[in-house]
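Q: Hi! First time doing this. I have a protein sequence and I read that you can turn it into a structure. Is that right? Here it is:
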Amino acid sequence: MGVMGKGLWYGALGGGWPSNVSAGLPVEMREIACLALSICRVLEIEDDEEGQVAMACAILNHMRDYGHDEGGNGGAAARVGTSSEAGRLPWRAFAIACLVVSGDMADPTDGATHFHRHTDDPEWARAATPKALIGNYIYYALSD
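A: Yes, that's right. Below is the predicted 3D structure, encoded as structure tokens:
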């Protein structure tokens, strides 16, 4: 799976965040809401806390560098299965989003905006700068 390939990629969350919920929120709260929605997908594929925070930071960096829309797009999409812990995911995702957006959690990816599994070799990664290897994922910043 890669950010621009199969499975994970930035920009297509599917359902998105309901615009009637986010419309009246301040920018920071909209950012937290969008990031939390993306992190819900991350929690389904990454069970390591360090990996969850790293993905959240990369998603936030991507949102800030490349933008996101009111529909919640701009985060990482993933193939999401059913989980016995599905009821806890939104709250855990919201907590991680608050820590990352507030800056209370350091960015272990050093500003990365893209990532992929270390077993993949997406073409876009050849022109990107590796920033970190955390868990099963390599994090990158795209070259300008």
